[in-house]
Every structure is written in structure tokens, then in C-alpha cells.
Amino acid sequence: MNTPAPSHPPSAQDVIDFWLGDGLERGWCSDDRDDLWFAGGPKLDATIRDRFGARVEQALDGGLGAWEAQVETRLALVLLLDQFPRNIHRGQPRAFAGDARAQQLVQAALASGMDRDMAPVGRVFLYMPLVHAENLALQDEAVARFQQLHDSSEAALREKLARNLHFARLHRDIVLRFGRFPHRNAALGRESTDEERTFLKDGPRFGQ
């Protein structure tokens, strides 16, 4: 059963609470959120669509500019632009429609040091649009940011952050090789090259 749509538009805090729970207060979430973050599936997609779909479309259409001002509301906006469209518009071009704005918001946040005092789990998802970028310079920035986050975090978090660093490197290597993510080609109506078709048979793949 789908979750009923809220009677009022979700706030930035509602977005943070749904995605990160108590993570910003604790440094990392006290519960296991890997299925929420990485597993996907029709049930989760429907839940995000029902609860946050209107806010996602507002963000994709250039709205919610007031959310850019503070670090936590900017993080919520980045989630609406980068993470949630991949659930709501899975397998469609609009899944990637927020990527450019999300990347701009992240770059501006990094340039101003906005991320400096954010909890590690918040920084993971603030940096994620760089991991999703089909741009080698942004991919290199993502790897550097995840490396620094891993190296500067307490030992108890390093195993978790090593996983994020590993996947950041995998993403970077794919963009270094192809200049794009071949696993997006079908959704975006792009013709795969012979090399990409071979890669798609056996190479590492990601959600979208």
C-alpha cells in the first residue's frame, strides 16, 4: 500500500529525516539505511513519489531557491535534485534532470566551505552529485572529497567511508574511459558504442 500524500508540502527537515534519520545529529545513522539508499525497487519508488513527488518537481523546475541559503536545507534540496528523481523517474530521462543544478549547488557549497562542519553522512550525500557527474573534473573532485572525508574521520566510520571512496573511484574510472556512464544510454536514448556494449555485459553497473 502506498503511503498517503501529506496534507502539507514536506519541509527540508522532512526530507532530511526521511533520508538520514538521526544521522546529522550522530555523525552517522543509528539504523541501517543501505536498502533505502541503494536497493531501490517499486515499493520505495512509490513511497518517495507519494511523499515527495511534488517537491521534487518543484526543485527540478528551478524552485526552492530559499533552501539554498543554509547547509542543511541545501542538502535537502540536493537530495530532491539528485537522489529522489532517480526513484521517481527511474529509467527515464527526467531521472537526471536535476543533476546539473545539484552539481552547481555542491560546487558552490564546497567553494564556500559550507560542508566543513557537516556530519560525515551528510557530506556523503552532499558530494554524491559529483559521483553522478558525466564530467571528469567533477569525478576527480568527488574522489578527492571522499578520500579526505575518509582520512579525516574517526576510525569507527572509516570502513563505511572506504566503501563510498571505492565506488567514487569506480565511477571516476568509467567516466575516464568512456566520457559518460554507458548504463544510462538506454534511458537517455543514446546509442552505445561497441566498446560500451561489451562493457555493459560484464562491467560494473550502478542504479542509474
Tell me, what's the shape? globular
Mean pLDDT: 94
Taken together, the total number of domains comes to 1
Fraction in helix: 55-70%
List the total number of helices. Answer: 11
The structural class is mainly alpha
Written as H for each helix and E for each strand, in order along the chain, the element string is HHHHHHHHHHH
CATH architecture classification: Alpha Horseshoe
The count of strands amounts to: 0
Q: What is the name of the CATH topology? A: Serine Threonine Protein Phosphatase 5, Tetratricopeptide repeat
Biggest sheet statistics = none
CATH superfamily: Tetratricopeptide repeat domain
Task: Give me the secondary-structure topology.
Blueprint: H1 12-20, H2 23-26, H3 34-39, H4 42-60, H5 71-88, H6 99-112, H7 120-131, H8 136-152, H9 155-178, H10 185-188, H11 194-202
Helix pairs in contact: 1-5, 4-5, 5-6, 5-7, 6-7, 7-8, 8-9
Task: Give an overview of the whole structure.
With 208 residues, this protein is mostly helical. It has a single domain (12-202), classed as Alpha Horseshoe (Serine Threonine Protein Phosphatase 5, Tetratricopeptide repeat). The chain is 65% helix and 0% strand. The chain has eleven helices and no strands. The radius of gyration is 17 Å and the shape is globular.
Question: Quick gist of this model?
Answer:
The protein is mostly helical. The protein has helices at residues 12-20, 23-26, 34-39, 42-60, 71-88, 99-112, 120-131, 136-152, 155-178, 185-188, 194-202.
